[in-house]
Write a structure and sequence with these properties.
Elements (H helix, E strand, L loop, with lengths): L1 E7 L2 E8 L2 E6 L2 E6 L2 H10 L25 E4 L1
């Protein structure tokens, strides 16, 4: 199986297969469940609340790309 990783200046975000869909994670925190990896990337780019970020709590400030082709592919 494959997943996706984006390394920001705050740490790595992952979009990985979950139970019945896809999960976006940061550290040990699940940021949400999504129907597709593209939906997860879109929502991360537009801004999800992530209280464990050291600067603010919104992922929109991290320049996370919406296009999955800009994410690194990881094998899980």
């Amino acid at each position: 199986m494959k997943g996706f990783r984006f390394g920001s200046n705050q740490g790595a975000f992952y979009i990985l297969p979950g139970q019945g869909g896809w999960e976006a994670t940061y550290g040990n925190e699940t940021l949400g469940e999504f129907a597709s990896p593209q939906q997860a990337a879109d929502d991360l780019a537009r801004g999800l609340i992530c209280p464990h970020l050291s600067e603010g709590d919104d992922t929109a400030t991290l320049e996370i790309p919406e296009k999955l082709s800009d994410w690194e592919i990881v094998h899980v």
